[in-house]
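Task: sequence design from structure.
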């Protein structure tokens, strides 16, 4: 997982400690999609139950609570998270319980619920614990000062300190119980390689965002966590505003949350000061749902026809403004939601007519509005989602299982990898526990990110995703990619040295005849500082002949002379002039000295090249950047397709506008290894815009030193490798001092022993675990301990013992009080 990273810290972000996920342990693989969907429904049910518990504690009536809970779970946040990132939906369960726990602390002096929910949130997902903690703290302040606003200042200050300490200690106790998970995860977060993403403007959004905040509040917009509330929530909000004097704090709350949604800095701060996102808005969803409860309760008691006329007028006004804004700014929207609004007006009018006959009519009408919203609004959303969601699309799921099963036909050593070309499903290796060239995790070591960025691996298109090694021959072999599975012949870029092993239907399996052992040795090194000065193409050549280490050492030999593969480079103004010449009749693009202006989406640009036979070919754009044309809305991902020798290379480019952008300035893409050279490269730009660069290059690299250097590494590879849990056993006979490189990401959690003696581990080739070996027989044992695990365990045990001791004291005091009362 993640090239051999810690399962514990990698998966905690994905609710590794979530109790609901424990059912996956007993669920057979073939039933995983059904269990996944069942948990979606169950999570939404628990979220509704949790919200109802909060509202019930506030003494609201049952019918209003039911409507509010439906608004809560069938909001954009509820639907988008529960069907996309299912563990995100857990916050909808935890938030109301957190708030009830705050009230129990203040009003009942009970801390058990706060300890429990802090613990549960912490073990489930550290990411949302941050937001939940902030909201709980703010709610504590609001609740306390609302309760004690009549006390004198000195008394209020004393009570505030006392209650604040109780709140803090209860919260810390919950975190302390979860320290066995929390401490290792904190260390992993500090070393995370995902990166902060793009941050351009913390003050304001694009105008379309504000249109969505207004008109999208009561409809589902694909990919948005904002709004999507049932139209009955609008009825309730209008009712609250009509009686603003009695509901002033809720009116202020609605206005305040609306303002906060309009400021990018809020999403940035509540996301841990990393990148801008709207994942924090579950608190807004909760607030609107509770306002719905209050509004429906008020309307149920309303007898004046004038009130319903005003609501109808506001309904129509909102409807008309939304239509105008959406049409003018071309913002996405669903007609079914507007239909539900109109139906809502009709139902309200019917209610007004029947008010004096039967009281239950109102409840039927309100419930009718809810059902229309849920059925109409969700239909289009789910139809679109079902085609893309992995576990909800059985075809994609079975396809991945099939790819995984292919690996069972061939023997693979621990650490060897498989690369799957021509598909968009990542992390497929976890099904059958074999190594993969891809990863798609929000938590992985920064060394992994640095390695791929320094080598300009275009398969690291997004900061949280690496889909492979761009089919680059040297990168594949150095990372022990043994097999390549091809699913689509158009994307068939087979690296040098791979031979067809099997063809089954539309699938092909190729085996690397030069496959390198997951552990091999170098007899020399250069420092990382020297290596970073080279181009990305030359960097990987160097890794064939010498190790790259962080600092010099006295045992191994320092490499003085470096040898590179021969290459032919076309670049500079002469090459750009040739590109302009062959595209002079192309009306869809404008090619300037340092930019390509793409006026029409899916436009092609021809690149005249002078490649080599038996060579690996690359396109490189130095300092690539993207900007929209004439003030259009910027697109955060601008995919390109590179065509060469009738083979396609789809490449996604996350530009500066994307929250998933990487730190790479140069863009390098491998067109593939071919025995015969092609005449032209065609680049298909899928998105119109201005693509700027400082240099445009075509690189054709011969692999003339590859065979010699890779065979030397193969001869120096470790033959005996055994993995047993968190221990790795290796044996290597060294004729001279060597640097051992192991295809495991470097981590402080590894401890190495050579011939029974503890030795230092080194970071080799930027991201890999290494050991300096002396001459002679070397029996190596590597032991892994998740960093922070021992400390976390000690804190958890200590905290639990304190809580148990406290419970014993409380029980004894209660027993004594009971005895005294009896006497």
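Answer:
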């Amino acid at each position: 997982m993640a090239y051999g990273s810690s399962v514990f810290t990698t998966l905690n972000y994905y609710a590794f400690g979530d109790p609901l996920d424990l059912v996956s342990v007993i669920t057979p693989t073939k039933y995983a999609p059904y269990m996944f969907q069942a948990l979606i429904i169950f999570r939404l049910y628990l979220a509704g139950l949790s919200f109802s518990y909060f509202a019930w504690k506030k003494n609201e009536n049952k019918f209003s609570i039911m409507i509010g809970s439906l608004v809560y779970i069938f909001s954009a946040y509820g639907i988008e998270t529960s069907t996309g990132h299912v563990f995100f939906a857990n916050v909808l369960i935890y938030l109301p319980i957190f708030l009830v726990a705050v009230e129990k602390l203040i009003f009942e002096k009970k801390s058990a619920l706060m300890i429990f929910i802090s613990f549960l949130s912490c073990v489930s997902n550290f990411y949302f614990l941050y937001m939940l903690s902030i909201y709980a703290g703010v709610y504590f302040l609001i609740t306390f000062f609302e309760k004690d606003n009549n006390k004198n200042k000195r008394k209020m200050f004393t009570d505030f300190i006392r209650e604040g300490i109780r709140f803090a200690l209860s919260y810390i106790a919950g975190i302390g119980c979860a320290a066995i998970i929390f401490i290792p995860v904190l260390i992993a977060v500090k070393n995370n390689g995902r990166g902060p993403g793009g941050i351009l403007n913390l003050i304001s959004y694009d105008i379309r965002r504000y249109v969505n905040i207004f008109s999208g509040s009561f409809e589902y917009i694909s990919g948005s966590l904002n709004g999507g509330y049932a139209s009955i929530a609008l009825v309730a909000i209008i009712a609250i505003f009509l009686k603003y004097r009695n509901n002033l704090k809720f009116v202020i709350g609605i206005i305040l949350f609306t303002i906060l949604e309009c400021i990018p800095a809020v999403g940035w701060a509540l996301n841990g000061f990393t990148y801008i996102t709207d994942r924090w808005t579950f608190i807004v969803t909760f607030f609107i749902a509770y306002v719905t409860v209050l509004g429906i309760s008020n309307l149920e008691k309303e007898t004046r026809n004038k009130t319903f006329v005003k609501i109808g007028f506001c309904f129509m006004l909102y409807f008309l403004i939304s239509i105008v804004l959406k049409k003018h700014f071309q913002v996405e929207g669903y007609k079914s939601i507007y239909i539900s609004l109109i139906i809502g007006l009709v139902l309200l009018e019917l209610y007004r007519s029947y008010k004096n006959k039967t009281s239950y009519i109102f409840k039927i009408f309100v419930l009718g509005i809810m059902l229309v919203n849920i059925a109409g609004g969700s239909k289009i959303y789910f139809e679109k989602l079902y085609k893309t969601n992995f576990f909800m699309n059985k075809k994609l799921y079975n396809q991945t299982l099939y790819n995984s099963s292919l690996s069972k036909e061939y023997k693979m050593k621990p650490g060897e990898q498989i690369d799957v070309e021509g598909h968009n499903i990542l992390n497929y290796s976890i099904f059958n526990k074999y190594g993969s060239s891809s990863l798609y995790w929000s938590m992985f070591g920064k060394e992994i990110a640095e390695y791929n960025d320094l080598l300009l691996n275009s398969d690291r298109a997004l900061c949280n995703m690496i889909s492979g090694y761009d089919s680059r021959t040297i990168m594949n072999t150095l990372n022990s990619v043994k097999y390549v599975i091809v699913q689509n012949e158009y994307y068939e870029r087979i690296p040098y040295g791979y031979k067809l092993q099997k063809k089954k239907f539309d699938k092909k399996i190729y085996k690397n005849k030069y496959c390198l052992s997951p552990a091999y040795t170098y007899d020399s090194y250069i420092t990382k500082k020297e290596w970073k000065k080279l181009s990305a193409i030359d960097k990987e050549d160097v890794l064939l002949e010498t190790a790259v280490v962080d600092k010099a050492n006295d045992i191994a030999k320092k490499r003085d002379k470096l040898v590179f593969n021969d290459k032919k480079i076309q670049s500079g103004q002469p090459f750009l002039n040739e590109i302009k010449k062959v595209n002079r009749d192309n009306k869809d693009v404008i090619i300037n000295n340092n930019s390509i202006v793409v006026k029409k989406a899916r436009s092609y640009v021809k690149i005249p090249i002078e490649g080599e036979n038996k060579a690996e070919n690359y396109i490189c754009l130095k300092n690539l950047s993207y900007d929209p044309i004439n003030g259009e809305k910027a697109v955060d991902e601008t995919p390109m397709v590179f065509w060469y020798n009738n083979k396609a290379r789809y490449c996604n480019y996350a530009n500066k506008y994307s929250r998933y952008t990487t730190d790479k300035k140069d863009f390098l893409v491998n067109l593939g290894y071919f025995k015969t050279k092609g005449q032209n490269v065609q680049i298909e730009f899928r998105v119109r815009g201005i693509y700027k660069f400082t240099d445009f290059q075509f690189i054709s690299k011969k692999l003339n030193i590859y065979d010699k250097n890779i065979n030397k590494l193969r001869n120096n590879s470790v033959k005996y490798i055994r993995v047993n849990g968190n221990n790795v056993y290796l044996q290597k006979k060294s004729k001279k001092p060597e640097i051992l490189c192991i295809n495991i990401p470097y981590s402080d959690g590894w401890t190495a022993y050579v011939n029974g003696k503890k030795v230092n581990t080194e970071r080799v080739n930027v991201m890999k675990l290494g050991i300096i070996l002396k001459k002679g027989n070397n029996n190596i044992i590597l032991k892994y301990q998740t960093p922070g695990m021992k400390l976390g365990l000690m804190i958890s045990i200590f905290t639990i013992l304190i809580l148990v001791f406290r419970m014993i004291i409380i029980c004894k005091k209660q027993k004594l009080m009971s005895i005294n009362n009896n006497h």
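The CA atoms of residues 90 and 320 lie 36 Å apart.
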